[in-house]
Amino acid sequence: MSANRLTTAGGHPVSENQHSLTAGPNGPILIQDTHLIEKLAHFNRERIPERVVHAKGAGAFGTFRLTKDMSDFSIARVLQGVGKETPLFLRFSTVAGEKGSADTDRDPRGFAVKFYTEEGIWDVVGNNTPVFFERDPLKFPDFIHSQKRDPVTGYKNPVRMWDYWAKSPEALHQMTILFSDRGLPDGYRFMHGFGSHTFSLWNRSGERFWVKFHFKSLQGIKNLTPDKAAELAGTDPDYATRDLFEAIERKEFPQWRVCLQIMPEKEAETYSVNPFDLTKTWSHKDYPLVEIGVMELNRNPKNYFFDVEQAAFSPSNLVPGIGASPDKMLQGRLFAYPDAQRYRLGGNYQQIPVNRPLNRVAHYQNDGHRSEPGFGYDNYEPNGFGGPVQDPSVTEPPLRISGDADRYNSHKGNDDYSQAGALYRMLAEEERDRMTSIIANTMLQVPKDIVKKNIEHFSKCDPDYGKKIAEKVGL
Q: Which residues pair with 185 in a beta bridge?
């Protein structure tokens, strides 16, 4: 028996794989050709639902090596013991484009890290930007709809984008990054990553610290010019995916410094900006970066679909000692991300190898799509048969909250302009000129009343910001 013998998915040997079973040489195909039926039926199901955002991506395996013990700040074992190494998988992506879109589109880039810790999966699901367009998850679907295809025409329309932004100045900080040179990173190796949200650490004394995660590229920052990005979109739309894969194959393993900004819990109450507002950054003067380790990618997936496409990230994957915060966008994502994975991959998506914890899993969930054999005990708790039980030692310290339940206006009294203006003034004059030209070019077919409203917002960030755009659109 040949070791290379072709079989069906059920392991049955296939006698013929070139010609269908027919009634006579010219007759119709018979439904009893089970090999043909299986091939066609599986082919129809080869594609799982596309991610609504972050559909196009690339990824690789690697390690995180801790260089600074953080046990004073967290009970998380992944952050304890200098030299400790933790395996990981990192997925990069564009955000708004579909599965077949170009890697070089002007768009934020997803930067999602899955750490396989001894206490379970820890996911840091961020972008290559420290902020985002929205601060309230109630607006996230609306924002994404404004960036996607027009439901009437089927093509993208900048009028919809700028109409939304005219009414959403909270996006100005992220917009300034998006339209700057960093809106077109040269592949995935030459950009920083950010957890973006505010998370928490807590130690054995019950002290809580608010933190932000930063991943600083040791390859440096490289960006594409708009002309080069447009050229690559036509000649090599998988440019960033190819660059990452081939660099790792050449053993040019990309690395990032892992850093934290750390804020004692009490200081959040009096800080100059809301530290849980995703449209804001913390000053590095107030909370300087603390380097805690190095992250390296050193192994390509053996199969793109198996690992990259099925990789499922969620900020709700948090290990003891690392927690969430009152960040409203984070709170929304704690539900939305695992819910999206259950829709795409099934209720047992965490049994897929790339998503599976390395440590022992013990729970009372069973059955459903992709289900694997149970744990050898009944599926309820409390019980009298010695099943797994809760562990109070990993309880998070209580979070003090106050106030009435209401739909509070997070825009009221909020300064949406200062940080965007400060970023604009940090850019070199030639980059400001490029950025305002790019913004103006996207507005050329947009109605003047929408353009004027957006220019008012840019002018509030910095008068020169609005003036340059106004001149370039002929206002």
A: 223
Using CA atoms, how far apart are residues 431 and 433, in angstroms rounded to an integer?
A: 5
- The answer to the question of whether 337 is labelled as a binding residue is yes
How many residues are recorded in the chain? 475
Q: Check if the beta carbon of residue 415 is closer than 8 Å to that of residue 457.
A: no
Per the DSSP assignment, residues forming a β-bridge with 114 are: 89, 123
1 within some domain? no
Phi, psi of 242 (to 5 degrees): -65, -45
User: Phi first, then psi: what are they for 263, rounded to 5°?
Assistant: -120, 120
Q: Euclidean distance between the first and final Cα of the chain, in Å?
A: 78
- Measured CA to CA in angstroms, residue 100 lies from 55, 108, 193 at distances of 8, 17, 23
Dist. CA 415–CA 150, nearest whole Å: 31
pLDDT higher than 90, residue 56: yes
Residue finishing a domain among 312, 336, 356: 356
Q: Mind telling me the catalytic residues?
A: 54, 127
Phi, psi of 413 (to 5 degrees): 75, 5
Residues 219 and 336 in one domain: yes
Q: Which of 444, 473, 411 is nearest to 167 (CA)?
A: 411
Cα(461)–Cα(434) distance, integer angstroms? 17
Domain end point (choices 338, 356, 374):
356
* Structural domain includes residue 262: yes
Residue 409 falls inside a structural domain:
no
Q: For 208-235, what is the mean pLDDT?
A: 97
Q: Is residue 195 part of a domain?
A: yes
| Residue range(s) defining the domain that contains residue 260 | 57-136+183-356
Same domain, 427 and 306: no
In whole angstroms, what is the distance from residue 360 CA to residue 287 CA? 37
Summarised one tens digit per residue, pLDDT across range 383-428 is 898 888 989 899 999 998 888 888 889 999 999 999 999 999 999 9
List, in order, residues 6 or more apart from 287 with CB less than 8 Å away.
Answer: 212, 261, 262, 263
Looking at the structure, do residues 74 and 222 belong to the same domain, yes or no?
Answer: yes
